[in-house]
Write a structure and sequence with these properties.
This protein is mainly α and 207 residues long. It is built from nine helices and no strands. The protein has helices at residues 2-10, 17-51, 53-67, 71-81, 90-99, 104-133, 139-162, 167-176, 181-203. It folds into two domains: 14-51; 57-203, no CATH class. The longest helix is centred in the N-terminal third of the chain and has 35 residues, at 17-51. Helices cover 81% and strands 0% of the residues.
C-alpha cells in the first residue's frame, strides 16, 4: 500500500518550462495592466481624494487608533498584519496596548478578531490560487509536503501560533494543500490563546 502511494506521487505530471513561461508572462501582463489602471484612476481622482473631508477624518481616526494601540487600533493592526504579504509585529502592538492600560481580555478579543479573518483569507487564497501557484512550483514537492503536513500538521500549527513565526504564510500554504480547515483554525486559536495569555501573565508580573 505504501509503495502504491509512493508511485502515485512519483508519476505526477509536472508543468513544462514552456507552460510556466506562458503563465508567467500572462500574469505579469495582468499585474502591469491592473497597476496601470490603479495609477491612472488615482491621477484622475487625486484632487477629489485629497479634498474629501470624510476620508481625511477616517484616515486621521484610524491613524490615531493604531498609534495609540487602542483595542480598535490593535484590531486594525492585527487584521492587516496577519495577511501573508504583510510584516507587522502584532505581538508588539498587543504588548503596547496592555502597557497603555487597556483591559487585557478586551485587547485579546480584538487581536483574535483581527488575525482569524485575515488567516481565513490567506487560507482561501492558497486554496483557490493553489492551481495557479503550482505552475511555478514542483507538484511532486507540494504533494510530498502535503503528506508531511497531514502527519505533523498539528504540531506545526501550534508551534507557528505560539512562537513569533510566520503563521500567515503557514495558513496560505495549508490552504494550497487543502488542509482540514476546522482542525487548522481550532489549533490556531488554541496556540494564539496560549501565546497572548502568556504575554498577559508576563505583563501582570506572574512570570
Amino acid at each position: 500500500m505504501a509503495e502504491q502511494k509512493k508511485e502515485r506521487y512519483e508519476f505526477i505530471k509536472e508543468t513544462s518550462n514552456k507552460q510556466r513561461l506562458i503563465v508567467f508572462f500572462i500574469s505579469l501582463f495582468v499585474i502591469l495592466l491592473l497597476l496601470s489602471s490603479i495609477i491612472t484612476l488615482y491621477i484622475i481622482f487625486k484632487d477629489s481624494i485629497n479634498q474629501s473631508q470624510s476620508l481625511h477624518a477616517f484616515k486621521s481616526f484610524l491613524g490615531n487608533e493604531v498609534k495609540n494601540a487602542s483595542p480598535l487600533g490593535v484590531f486594525y493592526a492585527s487584521f492587516t498584519g496577519a495577511f501573508f504579504f504583510m510584516f507587522t509585529p502584532i505581538e508588539l502592538f498587543f504588548t503596547i496596548s496592555l502597557r497603555n492600560g487597556n483591559p487585557p481580555l478586551l485587547v485579546l478579543f480584538f487581536t483574535l478578531a483581527g488575525i482569524i479573518p485575515a488567516y481565513l483569507i490567506n487560507y482561501f487564497i492558497g486554496a483557490k490560487a493553489g492551481r495557479f501557484i503550482l505552475n511555478f512550483i514542483s507538484k511532486k514537492k507540494i504533494y510530498a509536503a502535503r503528506r508531511k503536513v497531514n502527519k505533523y500538521g498539528v504540531y506545526a500549527i501550534l508551534l507557528f501560533s505560539i512562537l513569533p513565526l510566520p503563521a500567515d504564510l503557514l495558513t496560505l500554504g495549508l490552504g494550497m494543500t487543502k488542509y482540514n480547515i476546522l482542525r487548522l483554525f481550532s489549533f490556531i486559536i488554541i496556540g494564539s490563546l496560549i501565546k497572548y495569555g502568556f504575554l498577559i501573565l508576563i505583563f501582570k508580573g506572574i512570570f
